[in-house]
Write a structure and sequence with these properties.
6-stranded mixed β-sheet; globular; Deoxyribonuclease I, Chain A
């Protein structure tokens, strides 16, 4: 199974700064994944710029099964969150809201986030998330992910806004394998044109065999995609 995580920045062409579904679909198809976790996706809302982006990418990539998990509705008009594309039938999918830290411990920007959880017909459970920018948000996100993991045949992926050596990731590393361990040399994911950091991840349950992993040099969104080939 080939897995891909991709923060599309609401399908914004990074070089031309306009919404471009074709460029995003081409980036996905170039990697030929079986499942894709998507971050920063829009849903249909009162704001005319908010359309069913996950459905559009599903149609353009030929991946027939999809799910959109809104975390927030911006200004009451624009659903915004995570998405999932799959070549395998989805038997159940849900949106799990990550609890907001109360009170906020930091002065940074806070935003409610979610975990997309999908169960596939082939028995694989997939979690997709986009962690908040503040440590207390990330800690709540980690706790939410851990409470929704499956013991076997499980994939967790997304833009976690954390560097690989961040201790906040330790509880996840204790439960799952980081596919990036198979990278040949250093691979960075953000920003896509001149990457300076790795903040995008694909983790798998211990029963998985990781066959390969990469962050291809694709400049479509502001993040490069991260791919991994795994076997359960």
């Amino acid at each position: 199974m080939k897995v891909m995580t991709f923060n599309t920045q609401h399908c914004l062409n990074y070089l031309e700064q306009k919404i471009d579904f074709d460029v995003m679909a081409e980036a996905i198809c170039a990697c030929d994944p079986d499942i894709v976790g998507l971050n920063e996706m829009r849903g249909e809302g009162k704001n005319p710029d908010y359309t069913e982006q996950v459905k559009t990418l599903a149609e353009k990539t030929g991946m027939p099964y999809y799910y959109f998990a809104p975390a927030i509705v911006l200004n009451g008009e624009g659903p915004y969150g995570n998405g999932f594309l799959s070549k395998f039938p989805i038997v159940h999918a849900e949106t799990v809201i990550i609890p907001d830290p109360v009170p906020h411990k930091y002065d940074g920007y806070y935003e409610t986030r979610c975990v997309l959880r999908a169960e596939l017909e082939n028995g694989v459970t997939v979690l997709v998330s986009h962690f908040g920018l503040n440590p207390d948000e990330a800690e709540n996100a980690v706790a939410t992910v851990l409470s929704n993991l499956a013991k076997e045949k499980c994939v967790f992926m997304g833009d976690l806004n954390l560097r690989p050596d961040d201790a906040i990731l330790s509880p996840i590393r204790a439960k799952m394998k980081d596919t990036a361990d198979l990278f040949e040399g250093e691979k960075l994911s953000f920003p896509s044109d001149t990457p300076r950091m790795k903040i995008d991840y694909i983790f798998v349950s211990p029963d998985a065999t990781v066959l390969s992993a990469d962050i291809p040099a694709i400049v479509a969104s502001d993040h490069r995609p991260h791919v991994a080939e795994i076997k359960f």
